[in-house]
Fold these 2 entries.
Entry 1:
Amino acid sequence: MGYDPQGVRFVLTAPETESTEQGFSPWKQMVYASVPARFAPRFLYKKHLNPESYPDGTAKVVPLGLRIVEDVLREHYPAEDVVVCHPSNLRQFVGPRTRAVGVAAHNPIGVAFSTGVYSNIFGSTAVPINAYESERIYTHPALRKYRPKVIVGGAGAWQIEKTNSFDRLGVDCTIVGRAEGVVLDLFRKADAGEELPRVVRPPEPRLDQLRVPARRATYGVVEMTRGCGRQCAFCSPTLETRVSLDQDALVEAVRANVREGGRCIFPVSEDIFIYGARQPFYIPNADAILSFYEAVASVPGVDFVPLSHATIAPALVNPHLIQEMSKLLLRFSVLKNPASTHPDKQFLSPLIGIETGSARLAAQTMSGKALPFDIRDWQDIVVEGIQILNRNNWFPVCTFIVGLPGETEDDVRQSLDLLHRLRHNKILYVPSIFTPLEDTRMAHGRGLKPRELTKLQWEFILTAWRQSLDFSVVRKRSNLAWKLGMYGFYYARGRWLHGPQFKYPALRFAGADEKKISPHLYLKWDGSNGTRDIPPKPPRLIAKHQGVAVEELAKLPSNGAAALRVLQ
Ligand code: SF4
């Protein structure tokens, strides 16, 4: 393909931290949202990014969102007018003829949910690596010289509006939401030299506007579902219509990824258990789920199939499904831990939102997460669900939200109690600080700054990190290095940044003598209290939900013991 040396009409790009397939594990990308750029000089992580390009300079692998925009534009413009490249090749494609540059933005300013704790723990001005990499695009000399229109889309596009960074970054337009239905019009306007609206909030794309591009995307992402339906108050994906994409179309996309050199296929979903769901949607359609994963994994050339987001209640509804998915997918996991009972020590790691240990707060904010069970049994649902997952070598990444609007000290104590009940389980915890997301029921809630966190909230965050560290960092020297790092950070900086409430939680993470620090903390790890093992009680099923009798559960062919037990 020959490209005009004067520049290509439309150029699409993304920060290298979003295009990398590092370690074939999507969770590894999260590190770039967590580590402040000023503590990680570029030469240290650049070699891991390895942005792959074809000999003509176009990108081999970029985030799915860019592939969707490319797909839309290529339908209406000749192939030589649309190019997708990595930032390192922008100079080759941006020139006087370039009318618009589309940029994928996942965390362009560094104010995403996770960043609230992970980067800002080092100070409120700490910019995470992926935000720093984004800024390198906006300030790229070719963009500054030729001044094409800059159009930003993606999960983090809202950050540009929220921080009013348009002028500083030279951004003309941000698309907040799904872009399929509006992107062509915006690029056409840019092509005609017209002014663009600063913010576009597209309506949800119609079903006929959904696209499954036949090009390689980072980690081989294919969207298996959209929407959710559990209606958590802080969540935006639940605002979308719940849709499962057609299995044949998805398998075509898998083949296209493999043809272009991809080895990893990552079927993404807000909840993998709603794929192909019928009514009620919270009862997994085991046949559809297994058929889909089997079809993906059996495409020749697919080596890795990570799991996306999931909810915990389906593990109790149908433990047999978890077992079957393990049989199918464990050998396609890149993740290994000595705690796995698999012969090659592989494990699966979906991301599961636990969010709180307080049934009161859970009932207020996310009662649908427990369905078909009663949210009042939230702790027992979580404990029993995790046990089922762990037995099948699923060691999930579990998120908690600290500082949900209305959270009391007692709610945090209950989250700590839950953490304690789970202390022997195999879990990687990702606590984050509540961030209000637009259009959600909690859009007007206030997000806390790290300096505002209470001692109990810090105890929760750092105890969760400590439990994660002890489970996941198995090499003694590395484990010790993390702990010593916290000592160093606390004395050099943390105590000034976060105040006295940070002290004992930080010392727990650092491995200080529990006999000395336990009197200052809620959870007593020195055995003086709170060390009882509380077995989970069978959670109550909601007797009838939306007119569907729970007896329907018993008709499921592979329904497990847990669900049957509660029916008795
Ligand atoms: S279960 Fe997850 S995706 Fe669904 S509404 Fe709740 S937070 Fe959102």
Entry 2:
Amino acid sequence: MFGKKPEPCIMVIFGASGDLTYRKLIPALYDLVADDLLPAEFAMIGFARKPKTNESFRQEMRSAVEEFSRRKPIDERIWERFARALHYQQGDYSNPDDYRVLCQRLEAIDRAHGSGGNRLYYLATPPEVYNTIIEHVGTILCPEREGSWARIIVEKPFGHDLASARALNEHLHRWFREDQIYRIDHYLGKETVQNILVFRFANGIFEPIWDRRYVDHVQITVAETIGIGNRGSYYEHAGVIRDIMQNHMLQLVALTAMEPPAEFTADAVRNEKVKVLKALRVDTSRGDGTVRGQYGPGVVNGQFVPGYTQEEGVAPDSTTETYLAMKLLIENWRWAGVPFYVRSGKRLPKRVTEIAIQFKMPPLLLFSQRTASEIQPNLLVLNIQPDEGISLRFGAKVPGSGENIQPVVMDFKYGASFKVPAPDAYERLLLDAMLGDGTLFTRSDEVEAAWALITPVIERWKAGEGSFIELYRAGTWGPKQADDFIAADGRAWRKL
Ligand SMILES: NC(=O)c1ccc[n+]([C@@H]2O[C@H](COP(=O)([O-])OP(=O)(O)OC[C@H]3O[C@@H](n4cnc5c(N)ncnc54)[C@H](OP(=O)(O)O)[C@@H]3O)[C@@H](O)[C@H]2O)c1
């Protein structure tokens, strides 16, 4: 699936006893080894407080691979090789002595595996512990030594508002240069998200009409059927605005709206995304440009589910939003006057992420009033998940003598055209970080530009201004106010 193999290195995962390591990181590393994409000298060491031996850690990670790898069943030969590269060290995140021991272990692994002193640090703990780990890695584990590299991957959430994101950036920059820092937004590792750029810039027919002259509006939907599971206490402080809008949604907006970069390099791509994020504003000409909702009890996929405030870890009087719709405007020459309506929610009827570009209507003078009223605008839909593909809607004449026109759809489906399953986003991102390619990671100015847009919205809500929380039944498409919100512009949400 990829080209180059990275140089030998040791990956150090902080918080390796957690869910992310189990479900995503270790299965992704195993799949990379199985695809022969990692060097033979690669090694990994997990660091966390829970006591484990190398052996018990390997046993647990075997179950992780069995359950979550793309390849089933596990291949014993590959597993044996992979397991030998896995190590574990128990330690306290704030105890310098534990980092000194880790340092010695890393040097011993270097000698045994020939990993050459290169380090990839991964922060897979809750964000409360990021600062102390960064500081200890920076002061004790020697960020970069002559002839070797050190990089650090930071998981989301990156800050909880503009001030905290800036503070985290400053803290990281005390020990790491920007090109050593890899901020993960796993959406960017998805094949279909990367394909937005390929679709736009490797095809000649779409780019000329990709602007305010031809596009009426854009709708982006990130809909989930799941609730909050056992992440209640995290979600209470996040809501959709921090969980989806500030990161995944704004990334989708930026990729859809950005100018073509001068070259396909990390900085050129990110420069163009930052320009979009800086030109974005929430349309506050009517209210605060948002509709907030929270799910009540209801039926999803035929099953009764409790309301948000009945979930574990949620306050009975919680005002956290589980649904959010916003109207965004991009103040630049390409997009002036074209609204980007974005919506995301939990416990909606269907799991779907898509970008729909609706084009302006042609002049319909040719057709009778009745026929003209049946004609629907052209629509281009980029399906990100779960049915990855692209579809184009246009009007066609119904066979027969009349003048009837019906919308028809031209469909491209990844699964049907490319028979191989797409690799998991984490495979791509881990490999890119090892290769030193930051294109699919967010840069400090990008994260701050996203927070600069989102923070005032959160502050207005906190001050009791702006939209109120509206209840919606689980299994429906959000509160009725969201329909009224877009209808006020003479438009409607797509029925999915
Ligand atoms: N899980 C996912 O699918 C996912 C997806 C996207 C982003 N993320 C992000 O990735 C990071 C890790 O996620 P996760 O789901 O693996 O988290 P997790 O299971 O809650 O925590 C990972 C590990 O961190 C340590 N830890 C937990 N709470 C701590 C605390 N208050 N102080 C110090 N250490 C603590 C624990 O290890 P010890 O007790 O053994 O030290 C735990 O096993 C988080 O920042 C999360 O937001 C996760």
